[in-house]
Design goal:
This protein is 37% helix and 18% strand. By secondary structure, the chain is of the alpha/beta class. Strand 3 (87-93), helix 4 (101-106) and strand 4 form a beta-alpha-beta unit. It has an eight-stranded parallel β-sheet with strand order 1-8-7-6-5-4-3-2. It has helices at residues 2-24, 42-51, 74-80, 101-106, 122-131, 178-191, 208-214, 223-226, 231-239; strands at residues 29-32, 56-62, 87-93, 111-115, 135-140, 158-162, 196-200, 218-221. Bound molecules: D-xylitol-5-phosphate (DX5) and zinc ion. Zinc ion binds next to strand 2.
Length: 244
C-alpha cells in the first residue's frame, strides 16, 4: 500500500503541477459529470470521456438526505478506478462527510469535495483528506455566500461553486451565482491562495463563456457533455477553443 501511496501521491503532485500550470496559463479544464451518463454501462462512459479528451471525471455522490437524490458509494468509485487514468473529482453531496472520507480515499479518489453546509468541522475534514494524500475541495450551494468559506480558503485545493441547487443534472444555471466566482478569484489573488475554482451545474455552450469570463478554472458538465452529438467537439466548444 505504501508503494502505491507513494506512486499515487507522486501522481497527484504531477497532476497538480499540470493543473497549476494550466490554471496559471488560463487553460480551462472540463470535468464531465457521470451523473448524466448511462449507469448501466459506465465503463463505456469513461471511454467516451477519454476519447473526448476531457480532463477530469466528476463523480457525484448523493445520500438522499443532504440532497433529494441517491447515487452511489465508494465501491462504485473503486470499481471504476482501474478503467480511467483521469483525475477522479469526487463531489460528496452528503451529510456527515467525515464518516465517508476514508472509504472514498481508499477507493482511489484524487480530489474529494464536500459541502460547507454539511460540515461544522470543515477545517478538520480538510486535514483528514489532505493527510491521506488526497486533494481537498469545499463546495457551496447557491444560497450560501462566499464569506462562509473565509476561514478555510487558505487550506483548500479547490472551491466548487454550485450554479444549480444540487441533486440533479439537466438544470438551468443560476446566473446570480456567477458573482461568487469573481469574488473567489479576487480573494485568491489578494491573498496569494492557490485553490482551483470549479463551477458545477447548467454548464453548456451557451453558459460556459460567462462562467469562464467570471474566472472559472474547471467546468463541470453533465448533460451538455453526455447528450452532445460529438462529445469531443463539445469539450473544445466549452473550452472556447472553437466557436459555437
Ligand atoms: C448536481 C451535480 C452536478 C450535475 C451537473 O447536483 O453536482 O455535477 O451532475 O449536471 P449538468 O451539467 O447537467 O447541470
Ligand atoms: Zn457535482
Amino acid at each position: 500500500m505504501k508503494q502505491t501511496l507513494v506512486n499515487h501521491t507522486e501522481f497527484i503532485a504531477f497532476i497538480t503541477d499540470i493543473c497549476y500550470y494550466k490554471h496559471m496559463n488560463n487553460e480551462i479544464y472540463i470535468a464531465p459529470s457521470i451523473l448524466s451518463a448511462d449507469f448501466s454501462n459506465m465503463r463505456s462512459s469513461l471511454e467516451t470521456i477519454e476519447r473526448a479528451a476531457a480532463d477530469w471525471v466528476h463523480l457525484d455522490v448523493m445520500d438522499g438526505s443532504f440532497v433529494p437524490n441517491l447515487t452511489f458509494g465508494p465501491k462504485f468509485v473503486k470499481d471504476l478506478r482501474p478503467f480511467s487514468p483521469k483525475v477522479f473529482d469526487v463531489h460528496l453531496m452528503v451529510d456527515h462527510p467525515e464518516t465517508m472520507i476514508n472509504a472514498f480515499i481508499d477507493a482511489g479518489s484524487d480530489y474529494i469535495t464536500f459541502h460547507m453546509e454539511a460540515a461544522v468541522h470543515a477545517h478538520r475534514i480538510i486535514q483528514q483528506i489532505k493527510n491521506a494524500g488526497c486533494k481537498a475541495g469545499i463546495s457551496i450551494v447557491p444560497s450560501t455566500p462566499v464569506s462562509a468559506l473565509r476561514e478555510i480558503l487558505q487550506y483548500v485545493d479547490l472551491v466548487l461553486v454550485m450554479t444549480v441547487n444540487p441533486g440533479f443534472g439537466g438544470q438551468k444555471l443560476i446566473t446570480g451565482s456567477l458573482g461568487k466566482i469573481t469574488e473567489l478569484k479576487s480573494i485568491r489573488e489578494k491573498n496569494s491562495y492557490d485553490f482551483l475554482i470549479s463551477v458545477d451545474g447548467g454548464i453548456n455552450r451557451q453558459t460556459a463563456p460567462s462562467v469562464v469570463e467570471a474566472g472559472a478554472d474547471i467546468l463541470v458538465s453533465g448533460s451538455a457533455f453526455f447528450n452532445a452529438e460529438d462529445p469531443s467537439e463539445e469539450v473544445k466548444i466549452l473550452k472556447g477553443n472553437i466557436p459555437v
